[in-house]
Amino acid sequence: MSITHIRQELSELEVSLRKEIDTLPQFIDVLGAQNPHLSLGEMIDRLASSHLTEHPLFLRLNRLDAALCQLDLGLYGLCSDCEAEIEQVRLNQDPTEQRCSACAEHYQHEHRHELRLSH
Questions:
Q1: Domain range spanning residue 54?
Q2: Is the pLDDT at 116 greater than 80, yes or no?
């Protein structure tokens, strides 16, 4: 898959996420009327200081931002944990994927353990 194709796919995902944001009053309240003119980074910065940081949409925005940064740095498709190539099947399913399957499994196992300890 070419960088141009990946960038286009990520751009389409950003448009989709922005449309979703426009339907959620709690996001509109935080982002204000300037929402359509904010960059992805500005949106994330504003949302980071709100009560929406645990919202799945905020997490998806962060993953999109990370994927775009990795693309700019020439690191797109490399696991954020072990730096191995992320399987193409995983990237086809989710172009913002940050981990290879082995590291994703390990991360989920650890994350579930952390959740159990915090309750």
A1: 3-117
A2: no
CA neighbor of 95 nearest in space, from 107, 108, 77, 78: 77
CATH of the domain at 65: 1.20.120.910
Dist CA 81 CA 79 (whole Å): 5
Tell whether the model's pLDDT for residue 52 goes beyond 80.
Answer: yes
**Computed from CA positions of residues 73, 53, 14, 87, in that sequence, does the dihedral angle turn out positive or negative?**
positive
The per-residue b/e assignment along 83-119, b for 16 or more CB within 10 angstroms, e otherwise, is eeebbeebbeeebbbbbbeebbeeeeeeeeeeeeeee
% of the chain at pLDDT higher than 70: 92
Rounded-to-integer distance, Cα 119 and Cα 117, Å: 6
Q: What is the pLDDT of residues 8-50, one digit of tens each?
A: 999 999 999 999 999 999 999 999 888 889 999 999 999 999 9
User: How sure is the predictor about 113, in pLDDT bands with cuts at 50, 70 and 90?
Assistant: low
- Please give the structure tokens belonging to residue 32: 């204000």
